[in-house]
Amino acid sequence: MAGSSLSGRVAVITGASAGIGRATALSLARDGAAVVVQARRGEKLEELAKEITAAGGQVLTVKGDAAKEKDIDELLAKAREYAGRISAKMDIVVVNAGRGLAGGLLGSDMKQWREVYETNVLGAAYLMRRAGEILVEMGTGDIVVLGSASGRNVSPFSGFYGSSKFAIGGMTEAFRREVCGRGVRVTLMLPGIVETEFQGVAGYTPENFYKGIARFGKLLKAEDIAEAILFVVTRPAGVHVNELVIRPTGQDYP
Predict the structure, then answer these.
(1) Strands of the 34-39 sheet, one edge to the other
(2) Which of 146, 155, 176, 196 could form a disulfide linkage to 186, CB 3.0–4.6 angstroms apart?
(3) Which residues face 10 on adjacent strands?
């Protein structure tokens, strides 16, 4: 593909079937990384793989659920085997898989609470732990965790989801302090509103969401966040971008 600054590196990306995960896989592959992508929708992963290989990139698809420990273990095992096979090092992990949920404690669907936390917090934490063990042993690498601006400034229209991102944000900073002295960089990405299929799945509607944000104007695209992730993982070894908040220019809240 076009770039080569990530040549010799393997990047693992969860939630890669759409949105930020998909855009990140394309961006990192374009810059020379071999990418290992995971999502529950295998057909979407295969579509992504065809696009990457058609452009000259390297990709491995691993269908799985980022909320399940056995699927995370399988993902990392296959990524390490793949890295060995192509003589590269698996030293980038993008903890991206997540799900939204419209409403706060009073208005959100209680039936979805557990699933939100299993994916956004427990699954993310398990991947961070397992990836951290591998990268600490290597003494190098990048772990990029997708939080949210709404996890830093929790709003009532997505309060329950925001609480999950508040939790993972605190965990990510603690994790950074735990591993940064051993050569591993941990970055928390805090996007504002990014227009993807995420909103529809989360249950956002014109009444409970879009009318309130109309004043923001143009929203972010998944590619905007992917470019920021590429920036983070291509810094010199001694430069560690701990947090990055990215909002649409017109977004004043949250």
Answers:
(1) 58-63, 34-39, 9-14, 89-95, 142-146, 185-191, 243-246
(2) 176
(3) 34, 90
What positions carry a catalytic annotation?
161
In angstroms, the CA 95 to CA 21 distance is: 9
Q: Cβ contacts of residue 102 below 8 Å, gap of 6+?
A: 108, 157, 158, 161, 202, 203, 204, 205, 208, 209
* Cβ count within 10 A of residue 246: 16
**Per-position pLDDT tens, the chain of length 254:** 556 799 999 999 999 999 999 999 999 999 999 999 999 999 999 999 999 999 999 999 999 999 999 999 999 999 999 999 999 999 999 999 999 999 999 999 999 999 999 999 999 999 999 999 999 999 999 999 999 999 999 988 889 999 999 999 999 999 999 999 999 999 999 999 898 766 656 565 555 455 566 678 788 999 999 999 999 999 999 999 999 999 999 998 88
Phi, psi of 223 (to 5 degrees): -65, -30
Residue 43: both structure tokens together: 């057909």
Q: Domains, the chain, ranges and CATH?
A: 9-246 (3.40.50.720)
Q: What is the pTM of this model?
A: 0.94
Q: Residue 106 burial by CB count (10 A; 0-12/13-18/19+): exposed, middle or buried?
A: exposed
- Identify which of 175, 172, 122 has the alpha carbon closest to the alpha carbon of residue 151: 172
Q: Which token pair is 211?
A: 């009318």
Q: Sign (positive/negative) of CA torsion 57, 91, 62, 198? A: negative
